[in-house]
Amino acid sequence: MSMKRDPESLNAVAELRDALRQFAADRDWEQFHSPKNLAIALSVEAAELLEHFQWLNDASSAQLPPEKLALVREELADVLLYLIRLADKLGLDLLVAAGDKLEKNALKYPVAKARGSSKKYTEL
Amino acid sequence: MSMKRDPESLNAVAELRDALRQFAADRDWEQFHSPKNLAIALSVEAAELLEHFQWLNDASSAQLPPEKLALVREELADVLLYLIRLADKLGLDLLVAAGDKLEKNALKYPVAKARGSSKKYTEL
Amino acid sequence: MSMKRDPESLNAVAELRDALRQFAADRDWEQFHSPKNLAIALSVEAAELLEHFQWLNDASSAQLPPEKLALVREELADVLLYLIRLADKLGLDLLVAAGDKLEKNALKYPVAKARGSSKKYTEL
Amino acid sequence: MSMKRDPESLNAVAELRDALRQFAADRDWEQFHSPKNLAIALSVEAAELLEHFQWLNDASSAQLPPEKLALVREELADVLLYLIRLADKLGLDLLVAAGDKLEKNALKYPVAKARGSSKKYTEL
């Protein structure tokens, strides 16, 4: 498999999506990639990511030693790969969806009301 | 907040990252965004996504009715937004990490060995 | 459905197990209760539980206001109910399994080595 | 640590709770056991349990080979142990909470309405 990805390119996410399609096709793994199974896999990977932080305090979680950061980086990557794959199987454009959601959040939490109010935040 | 996102642009993920930085700064929410808390939020969103699929069979999970698909689309977006935010707080380039991981997976599961072997797959 | 549970009784967990069997049979829900689906449901409920704590600091998480504690109590209950149900479908005795695991943990983390070592703990 | 647990006894869950208290005290691990951290650990363990089922179909998930069932049994145990510990730290009686929730569910899903309606079920 040649990936020729280029994060600086026009469409790095689209390239990852295409590479993942090829990856599954080459291995005859389409049969396992129902949206349900991909949603499970995504959730499991997110928990593996969380596991690295589970006994740390907030400050330590921002100062991971290099070898732990490398492991966390791989888990972040796994989450993104399953997320791209799941969106693809559902026919959704992940980046447009994220942009739309961010706009919705901006309306839901207006700066004037949300600012400096941790109490508000805890009720999200 | 003006987002001016453009999924077709050079760097849609970088634009989302910058918009999320601004979003948190505007609301004074940086204080809540430790990597630990963001990893929790990511995991919770991934579970909310999974919840939509939990009682469906595989076939049904690929044919969601429009109103359910719209909800799933928002959850996918939430996962991506927290993922971008977490990577940013850790100083990691999410797309490069995903490309690297995909290459690693290609070496781990060579086509010749993985192909057609569901048994192999279940041992991932 | 008459539950007649008695937490002080000889076998409160077994009574819950039996009540859950009846609950599913009465509603013809056995068809949905594959171990796979129950494991998903358990994971989703655990995330709903976690959601209540996600933006709190450690101290606040130990001093939940009464109305929040009531919600957390229901999520804890949901997790236990799915756990009992899943163990039942797999033919496992949950309490014996937990006792065995605790003994195994005692061997894995001897007091003399584990004591006072937070570093050790973070490597669990 | 002597556990002397007896699943047939009056109060197996209370015995596990007490053993877990002693376990943490012996190792000076109380400092890590905030409800927030325990809720994270519970969620991570639930995902590790789910991981065993993620690529299986429903039928296979009910027929695990013995070596896999043994691993699943340990994950089930971990979930229960963290659940008991978390309930204890929050001052909640887990069994009473579960009984109450089951009664509430019985009211929420009356047999006459829920029976034979998979559609209803998917809207839980």
How are the elements arranged and paired?
The structure is a homotetramer of 124-residue chains.
Chain A: H1 12-27, H2 35-51, H3 58-61, H4 66-89, H5 94-108, H6 111-114, H7 118-122
Helix pairs in contact in A: 1-4, 2-4
Fraction of residues in H or I helices of chain A: 55-70%
Overall geometry of chain A: globular
Biggest chain-to-chain interface with counts: A-B, 80 and 80 residues
Order of helices and strands of chain A: HHHHHHH
Radius of gyration of chain A: 18 Å
Quaternary class: homotetramer
Number of DSSP-assigned strands of chain A: 0
Structural class of chain A: mainly alpha
**First CA to last CA of chain A: what distance?**
43 Å
Strand content of chain A: under 5%
- Pick out the low-confidence regions of chain A: 1-10
Number of helices of chain A: 7
Mean pLDDT of chain A: 88
What distinguishing features does this structure have?
homotetramer, 124 residues, mainly alpha, 7 helices, 69% helix, disordered N terminus
